């Protein structure tokens, strides 16, 4: 919630989801410029959501930042195999750092 509010203050339009399945549906219907995706989510985890997203023509190219507490090599490697834009570990990044990475991902790539 704090993340969504901070991004809205930066004039980003934010859509949130309560679980991975809802997130996938909202992403495919809304087609955002960027998806912030956690790994640990109910119903469908972030890896599965990313895999399903990448099977869609639009979803193959959308920018995805994994924003998660999972800092183990297996999760990082699996996320990168899904062609993510960035991998941010929540505990190692401030809100301002995360917002700056979002801006860079959207505006400079």
Q: Could you explain how this protein is built, in words?
A:
This protein has 109 residues and is an alpha/beta fold. It has one domain: Rossmann fold (3-Layer(aba) Sandwich), CATH 3.40.50. It has helices at residues 2-9, 20-30, 46-53, 73-81, 95-107, and strands spanning 34-37, 63-68, 86-89. A three-stranded parallel sheet has the order 1-2-3, with helices on both faces. Strand 2 (63-68), helix 4 and strand 3 (86-89) form a beta-alpha-beta unit. The longest helix is centred in the last third of the chain and has 13 residues, at 95-107. The N and C termini lie far apart (26 Å).
Please sum up the structure shown.
This protein is α/β, with parallel strands linked by helices.
Largest sheet: 3 strands, parallel
| Principal-axes shape call | globular
- The CATH topology is Rossmann fold
Rounded to an integer, what's the Rg over CA atoms? 13 Å
What is the distance, rounded to the nearest whole angstrom, between the alpha carbons of the first and last residues? 26 Å
What ranges have pLDDT less than 50 throughout 5 or more consecutive residues? Answer: none
- For the largest beta sheet, what order do the strands appear in spatially? 1-2-3
Name the quaternary structure.
single chain
Task: List how many beta strands DSSP finds.
Answer: 3
Count of helices?
Answer: 5
CATH class: Alpha Beta
Q: Determine the mean pLDDT.
A: 88
Assign the CATH superfamily: Response regulator
Q: What's the order of the H and E elements? A: HHEHEHEH
Number of domains: 1
Query: Which strand-content bin applies to the residues?
Result: 5-15%
Q: Tell me the helix content.
A: 40-55%
Name the CATH architecture.
3-Layer(aba) Sandwich
């Amino acid at each position: 919630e704090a993340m969504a509010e901070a991004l809205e203050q930066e004039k980003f339009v934010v859509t949130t989801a309560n679980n991975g399945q809802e997130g996938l549906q909202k992403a495919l219907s809304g087609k955002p410029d960027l998806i912030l995706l956690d790994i640990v989510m109910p119903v469908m985890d972030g890896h599965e959501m990313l895999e399903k997203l990448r099977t869609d023509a639009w979803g193959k190219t959308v920018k995805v930042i994994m924003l998660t507490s999972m800092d183990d090599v297996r999760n990082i490697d699996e996320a990168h195999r899904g062609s993510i834009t960035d991998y941010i570990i929540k505990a190692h990044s401030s809100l301002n750092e995360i917002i700056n990475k979002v801006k860079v991902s959207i505006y400079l790539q």
